[in-house]
Description:
Elements lengths: L2 H11 L11 E5 L4 H12 L3 E6 L2 H14 L4 E5 L5 H14 L6 E4 L14 H21 L1 H4 L8 E7 H5 L5 H25 L2 E7 L15 E3 L5 E3 L4 H5 L1 E2 L2 E2 L13 H12 L10 E4 L6
Parallel strand pairs: 1-2, 1-4, 2-3, 4-5, 5-6, 6-11
Antiparallel strand pairs: 7-8, 9-10
Helix pairs in contact: 2-3, 2-10, 4-5, 5-8
Amino acid sequence: xxxxxxxxxxxxxxxxxxxxxxxxxxxxxxxxxxxxxxxxxxxxxxxxxxxxxxxxxxxxxxxxxxxxxxxxxxxxxxxxxxxxxxxxxxxxxxxxxxxxxxxxxxxxxxxxxxxxxxxxxxxxxxxxxxxxxxxxxxxxxxxxxxxxxxxxxxxxxxxxxxxxxxxxxxxxxxxxxxxxxxxxxxxxxxxxxxxxxxxxxxxxxxxxxxxxxxxxxxxxxxxxxxxxxxxxxxxxxxxxxxxxxxxxxxxxxxxxxxxxxxxxxxxxxxxxxxxxxxxxxxxxxxxxxxxxxx
Length: 294
């Protein structure tokens, strides 16, 4: 049985015949590919309407189309740069229109790495990572405040996607680590400010090694182009990926499951956190690492 079929069984067993997220509207940033795209499809499969927000318009449109082909009217694509405050306001506006005046879920997933050791990090590297991973999530949540600070009895959930780098630090990633650590503080503050009166839940998911363009071989040539036109190479050098200890790639030696997560596995954790199955989980940092850093 396919994983999505098993999830559907869970829904029906718990009296959610139309899906665990039926009637809800979700914004997922960085959902044109990878974990975000998988989450968007899962949310739609569980009855939600999804705003596919991504820097790449073609990819965002393709994900929205794949959702609508299976479930017409479940997705729209709104492309743009999350570091642009006006874009974030537009995403919120489009989501509210799509949801007939309501928004229920935000997943702050957009991001990338721009690595460098501390003594060589440029101002641009530092500022861009904080802008993408700390400032953009804050501004999106702030822009959506009127749709979350409401008392209508409907669930409202915010999930900020962090990383083990933001929890434990990581050599060569001071900028990324600080940005991702900031998401943890943002999450806890949202939970404390918006939980008491409005019932908003906010949680962080800190991913370990997930198979995405950020963890593939750097030599594969994946890159992101910043709004300023600079190309940033993504991935890990093959020399690091190829190192083996016995039969296990060195990258995986400290993972008890001895393997990375697939984007689908990672996305399942997001679905779980936004679902009613986690209705009493709030203000937490949930480590999705296969057991790494226990």
